[in-house]
Amino acid sequence: MFEVLAFVYDNYLDSDACPELLALHRTLNTQGFAASEVDAALFWLEDLRFAARQLPTTPLVAAPPVPGAAAMRVLSEPEKRRLGVAGWGFLVFLVSAGALFTLELELVMDRVTAAGPGPIGVDDLKLIVLMVFWGLRRTPDVLVLDELYDHQSTRLAN
Description:
The protein is an all-alpha fold. It has seven helices and no strands. It starts with a helix and ends in a 9-residue tail after the last helix.
């Protein structure tokens, strides 16, 4: 499914340019993706679009911090197993950097859960975050975008 989502993101950078699901289904099938992977990805995308429409239409801005009013999200056991320490650490980094707001984090967590059973690697998590931004029609900061595209295996120094 993740290969299909990556293809959609790479070929339709603007989510408004993405064709309707039936046309997208045909395009993905002609690209040689397995039918089950295409179906799973399209269901996932449709749920993302629906969830994105449920968020407030006002811009999501970070509120100024109020001393002593910090909130903490506690992961359930299935979420812990799904994300692992590295995945949760990456999401905490995005939130603390102001790149991912509370409602967006919840949407990412929803999409992680919807991605199927088993652990999610950090690279797949980065794709999920990209797709959430894509679904919200929001372009992340350039440095955040660079971090989402970065693959540690291609770095010169580790």
